[in-house]
Amino acid sequence: MSTLNISSTSDDVEIKDLLKKYYVYALVDTDNISSSGIFYIGKGTANRAEAHGKEALRLEKLKTEEDEQEGSEKLKKIAAIRKAGKEPLVRVLARFDTEPEAFAAEAILIQCVYGRLQDSGQLTNIVLGHNSRHIRHRGNFDEIPRLDVPKTTRLVKGEYTAATLENLRKNNVWEKAEEAVEQLRTMIAADSRLNNHISIADPSIAEKRYVCAVVNFGEPDVILRLQFTPTGLITNLRAATEGTKAGCAHFSERLGSVDLEPANKKCSYGWLPGWVNKPLKFNDFNLALARITEAYNKFNDKPTPAS
C-alpha cells in the first residue's frame, strides 16, 4: 500500500493518493494475458495479491492454509506456468472502501462473469463467493427465485415463538445457514480426503429456537451440529440420538474413548478443545470446515493429513 508522500523540494507539491484497503485481484496465465487467461479470482488486503505466488509455492509443498480448499486445479495451473520458467501475472481488478463491496465484486466475477471450471467456466476457484445464492450463474438466463421473482417463504410449523421468528427473519439467519451449508458441501466435495466421508443435512429447527445443520462424519453415536444464531455460528458435538437415555449414554461412552467429556449432566453435547465460547462468523467457511475436519479426525482411526 502506498503512503501519502508530499515533496517540498520545490515550489511544486506532489501528493500520492492512498490505495483503498480492499481489493479484488486475478491470477492470469502469462501465455494468455487477456480476460480469457484469468484462472483465479480472489479478494485481499495489504500484500495478499502480491504474496499469492509465494503462498501457492508453499502450498504445493505443505498443503496448508485457506488456499488448500481452492483445489488442486489452481496449484496445477501455477505449477505448469512455473515449469515453463514463468510466474502467474497478478493484477488488481478493483479496489473498494469496504469489505462487503469487495466480497460482492469477487462473487459476481466468479459466478456470473468468468465461471468456475465445474460450471463450464474458466476459473479454478472452488468457493463461489459470499451471497452467491443471489447471483446468476454464468450463461443461465432462466427465471430464478431470489433474483427475478421472490423465493417461496419457508414453512415453519409453529416451533418458534413469533418473537424468535422475527429475530431470525430480521437477521437473515435462514439464508445465512443455507449459504454456509452450500459452501461447505462444495468445499467437502472438492477435498478427496473428506468427500464421501462427511455429509451435511439441510438446515432445520432444533430446540425450538435454533437453525441448525447436522454434520454426519460416520459416527453412529456422535454428530457435529452447526448452530446458527443471529450473531454467528456455534459448533457442538451432539448425541446422534438426543433425548434418550441410551443415546446419551452411548454419546458419553464414545466421547470418553477419545479422551473427551460431555459438557452437561445430561451427556447430550460436548466440545473439542478450543471450541468453548469461540463462535465463528457466518462466513468463516474455512474455519468451519477446519472444525468439521478436526471432529472427523478425532473420531477416525485414519485421520486426514494435518493442514
Descriptive account of the structure:
- The structure is a single chain.
- By secondary structure, the protein is an alpha+beta fold.
- The chain folds into two domains: about 20-135; about 160-300.
- About 30% of the residues lie in helices and about 15% in strands.
- The protein has helices at about 50-60, 70-85, 100-115, 160-170, 175-190, 245-255, 285-300, and strands at about 20-30, 40-45, 90-95, 200, 205, 210-215, 220-230, 230-240, 270.
- Strands 4, 5, 6, 7, 8 and 9 form a six-stranded antiparallel β-sheet that branches. A three-stranded antiparallel β-sheet has the order 2-1-3, covered by helices on one side.
- A hairpin with a 3-residue loop joins strand 5 (about 205) and strand 6.
- Helix 5 crosses helix 7 (about 285-300).
- The longest helix has 17 residues, at about 175-190.
Secondary structure topology:
Blueprint (H helix, E strand, L loop, with lengths): L21 E7 L9 E8 L6 H11 L9 H12 L5 E8 L2 H16 L47 H9 L2 H17 L9 E2 L3 E3 L3 E7 L5 E8 L2 E8 L5 H13 L11 E2 L14 H15 L8
Antiparallel strand pairs: 1-2, 1-3, 4-6, 5-6, 6-7, 7-8, 8-9
Helix pairs in contact: 5-7
